[in-house]
Write a structure and sequence with these properties.
- This protein is an alpha+beta fold.
- Helix content is 45%, strand content 22%.
- The chain contains 11 helices and 11 strands.
- The strands form 2 sheets. Strands 1, 2, 3, 4, 5, 6, 7, 8 and 10 form a 9-stranded mixed sheet that branches.
- The longest helix has 19 residues.
- The radius of gyration is 20 Å and the shape is globular.
- 28% of the residues are buried.
- About 5% of the residues have low confidence.
Length: 260
C-alpha cells in the first residue's frame, strides 16, 4: 500500500483515465475517486471489503480510505480523481456527520452517462458543467448507501503517519524518532505498520523513496547521486539495492528503458 502525494496535497485537482484490465495496488490519497465499468467486471477493495462492479455500475471512494482494484478476466473502466473543493457542500455533509465518517458507507450504483464521461475528459468543459457532473457522482452515491465498510481502527493515525513520511522521507528518519515526536509507543506503531501496510516502517519508507526516485528518473535529467540524495537514501549503493528490490532493475536500467 502506498500514499499518493499529488492527489493528497493539490487543490482544484482533477484527473481522468481510461483503463483496460485495471489492476492497481492498495493506495490512499486525500481526494475522491469515482470508478465505473464500461465493459466486463472489476473488483474494488476498500480496506478489507470487496465490491464487484459490473458493466454500467460505479462506486465513489471517499478521501483517505485505502482502496485498490483487480481484474480477474476482463474489464474496461473509467476513473476520475477529484479534490474535495469541487464538491464542498457534499464534503461538509460528510464532515458534519450525515455519513458515518468513522466507517464510511459504500454502495455500488448504476451509471451509464457516457456523455458525462466525455465532458470530463474535455479540458475545455466549463466549470459549471464540471461541478454538476462531480456532484452527480456524489448524489448517486449518497442515494445508494447501503453497506458500512470495516475500516482500520487506527485510520486517523495511519493518515498522520503517511503525511509524516511524505514530509520527511528525504531526511534520515526512524520509527523510534517518529514515535517520540508523535507521542506513541514504539511497539504500538511498529504493529500498526505491519498490520496495515504488510511491512515494517523502514521498508515502507524505502518504497516511498523508490517511487519518488522513479518519478525523478522519468521526468528529469538529474544524476543518480542527486536523485539519491533528494529522496533520502543513505548512499548510492543503498539507492540501487532498494530500487532493484521494488522495480527489478537498477535506476540506470530503469531510466534507459523508459527512454527507449
Amino acid at each position: 500500500m502506498y500514499f499518493e502525494t499529488k492527489r493528497s496535497i493539490n487543490s482544484n485537482y482533477i484527473y481522468t483515465q481510461d483503463d483496460e484490465n485495471l489492476c492497481f495496488v492498495s493506495h490512499v490519497h486525500n481526494s475522491y475517486e469515482f470508478i465505473t465499468v464500461l465493459e466486463g467486471e472489476l473488483e474494488c477493495s476498500v480496506y478489507h471489503n470487496t465490491f464487484t462492479l459490473k458493466q454500467g455500475t460505479a462506486m465513489l471512494v471517499l478521501p483517505n480510505h485505502v482502496h485498490g482494484y483487480t481484474t480477474n478476466k476482463y474489464s474496461r473502466s473509467f476513473l476520475c480523481v477529484f479534490s474535495a473543493d469541487y464538491v464542498t457542500d457534499f464534503y461538509n455533509e460528510i464532515k458534519n456527520g450525515s455519513w458515518d465518517k468513522g466507517n464510511g458507507v459504500y454502495a455500488v450504483f448504476d451509471y451509464t452517462d457516457n456523455g458525462g464521461i466525455e465532458l470530463l475528459k474535455n479540458r475545455k468543459t466549463n466549470k459549471f458543467i464540471l461541478h454538476s457532473i462531480l456532484y452527480g457522482f456524489c448524489g448517486r452515491a449518497y442515494n445508494s448507501m447501503v453497506k458500512k465498510v470495516e475500516t482500520a481502527k487506527d485510520e486517523e493515525l495511519i493518515i498522520k503517519l503517511l503525511y509524516y513520511i511524505q514530509q520527511n522521507y528525504d531526511k534520515p528518519i526512524s520509527l523510534k524518532q517518529l514515535a517520540k515526536e508523535m507521542g506513541y509507543n514504539y511497539t504500538y506503531l511498529s504493529n500498526i505498520f505491519n498490520k496495515n501496510f504488510g511491512c515494517g516502517f523502514s521498508r515502507f519508507v524505502n518504497r516511498f523513496r523508490v517511487d519518488n526516485a522513479a518519478e525523478l528518473l522519468r521526468t528529469t535529467n538529474n544524476g543518480m547521486v542527486q536523485i539519491s540524495n533528494a529522496c533520502g537514501f543513505e548512499s548510492i549503493r543503498n539507492f540501487n539495492e532498494q530500487f532493484k528490490l521494488d522495480y527489478g532493475v537498477t535506476p540506470t536500467e530503469y531510466r534507459a528503458k523508459r527512454r527507449e
